[in-house]
Amino acid sequence: xxxxxxxxxxxxxxxxxxxxxxxxxxxxxxxxxxxxxxxxxxxxxxxxxxxxxxxxxxxxxxxxxxxxxxxxxxxxxxxxxxxxxxxxxxxxxxxxxxxxxxxxxxxxxxxxxxxxxxxxxxxxxxxxxxxxxxxxxxxxxxxxxxxxxxxxxxxxxxxxxxxxxxxxxxxxxxxxxxxxxxxxxxxxxxxxxxxxxxxxxxxxxxxxxxxxxxxxxxxxxxxxxxxxxxxxxxxxxxxxxxxxxxxxxxxxxxxxxxxxxxxxxxxxxxxxxxxxxxxxxxxxxxxxxxxxxxxxxxxxxxxxxxxxxxxxxxxxxxxxxxxxxxxxxxxxxxxxxxxxxxxxxxxxxxxxxxxxxxxxxxxxxxxxxxxxxxxxxxxxxxxxxxxxxxxxxxxxxxxxxxxxxxxxxxxxxxxxxxxxxxxx
Length: 424
Fold this sequence. Notes:
Helix content is 43%, strand content 17%. The longest helix is centred in the C-terminal third of the chain and has 20 residues, at 377-396. The protein has 16 helices and 13 strands. Helix 10 (229-241) links the parallel strand 6 and strand 7 (248-252).
């Protein structure tokens, strides 16, 4: 007697109930025309292939689902943020990666005739080699994430070409305005507005946006360093086009190779997540040695309560930020103090990053066909799922982003800092 289910929805039913509870929060529609779940809701999960259950059988949890989405076997239609939020809220914590889910996926695969060896993962998956956080491995990881095409990043990020949390103010009328407000906030925390001609080091300078802001608005002399060749190439072009070649130098250089120079201020914006816990002490000690007395460091980075390493079995770990690590902001403060900094200010911009990522997804969705033409459908899908999914953490507080400001005290202990926050 055949073991085939009447419909794909029938076969998936036990798996959906294990993963999401008895009452489905959104509509699921399958390749054979069957469906399950309410017609009303933020959107639809469209299962286009039996391969989805096969991937979930061999890689239960977010990695299997992520692979199916990247491969085009699974789609999220409608309000992607609402769909992911509904799924997150419905999923029982003890069932996401549990044996029940594996067993249910196996049962669905058996009924649908999908039993077989694991499918090859989409080729965009990263598998870095070498010692964790060695210079070569870090360079390979950075290339995987950033060297996917400057035109693609311009489409997603907008004219500011700034790949970090913006700061929305009452006068911010666009994402570009909010990014400029963030750069100005950092400039003022570093005291660039107080000392014309300050020498600034921008670690992990990206496409040069902070360097351009500091030089243009505050007359700073800037050295920007990155280990992404694509970023360095475009950053140098932007500097030349702005007529700032005498004020801004962009280097293809690892922060660990910085030595023998002196700066008035250092900004590190969205780079610290790549450093890793094992290199944190060296990172802050290196930057501390580059600052003169009264020099300031602004570390702007995603943080996680208790800290977390982005695992190899996670979607982000395989496709977006391999080897990434998020430290608890308390550990960041402690590490800075141990390196000789006096920590003077800590500020969370968590809600601002949720808004920033919503804007990035909107940019991507509004010009989807061009994004696919630039980097391929798989890569465009990776960025859409990553930015929309990580937005959940910034919305509910599972992750945050903090700016931590430290200063190098002078010989007499004077920090040469304002007594109150005059940059807000």
